[in-house]
Write a structure and sequence with these properties.
- The protein is of the alpha+beta class.
- Helix content is 32%, strand content 34%.
- The protein has 2 helices and 4 strands.
- The chain has a 4-stranded antiparallel sheet.
- A hairpin with a 4-residue loop joins β2 and β3.
Amino acid sequence: METVTFKVNGMTCGGCVNSVRKVFAAMKGVGNVDVSLENAQATVAYDPAQATPADLKNAVRDAGFETD
């Protein structure tokens, strides 16, 4: 597993945090996820054979949030 941390802009509440967590939970190859509303970021452990950082960021964008 590898880990990546990136900004998630547009989260305004705990519901947004849960939405981002659910997006990652639905992805193959994603392990531990930490989403911080206060820091506006997500830290994701993933299997690089099944997902890439670009895949993770695209999933967040598809859920209606912005990433760096």
